[in-house]
Amino acid sequence: MVKARKYVVKRHFQGEPKKDDYELIEYELPPLKDGDILVKAEWISVDPYLRAYNSQIKTPYDQFSSQVGIVLESKSPNFPVGCRIVSQKGWCDYSIVNPKDKLNVELGVYKLPNLGDLSPSLGVGAVGMPGATAYFGFLEICKPKAGETVVVTGAAGAVGSLVGQIAKIKGCRVVGFAGSDEKVKWLETELGFDKAINYKTANVVQALKEAAPKGVDCYFDNVGGEISSQILAQMNLHGRVSVCGSISSYNDSNLPKATIVQPSLVFKQLKVEGFIVSRWLDRWPEAFADIIQWIKSGKLKTREHVTEGFDKLFDAFVGMLAGENFGKAVVKV
């Protein structure tokens, strides 16, 4: 018998998640059945959507998220011992996975793509769900053209930092918003953003006018709130908006007020579309192939905010929600 540990969410979060909202449970895993694999987690992801989905799910529930794990025992010929898999088993150190179960098929359980010398942690980052989110959410919805101006909020996060770089690869001018001068410097000097703005200290309206004097063609929205209304007001005719999330309000008990956006949508004839990345699940390998090639060629840079220790998962989660991370927040188990 293998002893496993998992984090269970006991109640819906009120404001910022609290440690006593979780319970750490130790239990014994049963013997494998035909088709099952025993997986030891190596890398576990913490992402904004874990907070967003909390109010939508009946409690208690096991804390889901992406993880990269190594197969220790297998009764599935397609997943031999020693291979690495990506699953949604989340905040647990050992798990039994049946890749053919309906839910696993829907969520996507697959072998880690061949990363060569790159870290397996990328399987929950640039070569995982966040990478697919940036790739499809930007390219399929915004459909950028070379020479256009792209604005990204949450630009120093796991998804935003990739969107900005993909936009540069496609020949666009990129403006990013982030929450510190250090992040602004990173975006401009290391990732190649044309301009980055600290939304906490700048006059957003004026700063954006100076950074994008010809207006905004594409907007990738990670944060929502008033800043999004301000950006929409400066968009060009037939601009495209990809709505990925609204992290600015996830911890707020009372939703913040923002300027109405309908006049901008109507008079600029904007296309605004929200998405969940599983829409393109069958095409994820297409994104991963491009992203791996971009990383290896030096066109796309990845940065990870690594927290070590299974017992530090909660700390990594609330730290990510507070914006402590540059790039992808991951936990090394």
UniProtKB/TrEMBL annotation:
Keyword Lyase: no
Protein family membership: Belongs to the NADP-dependent oxidoreductase L4BD family.
Alphabetic keyword roster: Acetylation, Cytoplasm, Fatty acid metabolism, Hydroxylation, Lipid metabolism, NADP, Oxidoreductase, Phosphoprotein, Prostaglandin metabolism
GO cellular component: cytoplasm
Recorded catalytic activity of this chain's protein: leukotriene B4 + NADP(+) = 12-oxo-leukotriene B4 + NADPH + H(+); 13,14-dihydro-15-oxo-prostaglandin E1 + NADP(+) = 15-oxoprostaglandin E1 + NADPH + H(+); 13,14-dihydro-15-oxo-PGF2alpha + NADP(+) = 15-oxoprostaglandin F2alpha + NADPH + H(+); decanal + NADP(+) = (2E)-decenal + NADPH + H(+)
Molecular function per GO: 15-oxoprostaglandin 13-reductase [NAD(P)+] activity; 2-alkenal reductase [NAD(P)H] activity
SUPFAM superfamilies reported in the protein's UniProt record: GroES-like, NAD(P)-binding Rossmann-fold domains
Annotated signal peptide: none
Domain of life of the organism encoding this protein: Eukaryota
Protein name from the UniProt record: Prostaglandin reductase 1
Compartment(s): Cytoplasm
CDD domains listed in its UniProt record: leukotriene_B4_DH_like
Keyword Secreted: no
Entry EC no(s): 1.3.1.48, 1.3.1.74
Organism: Cydia pomonella
GO BP terms: prostaglandin metabolic process
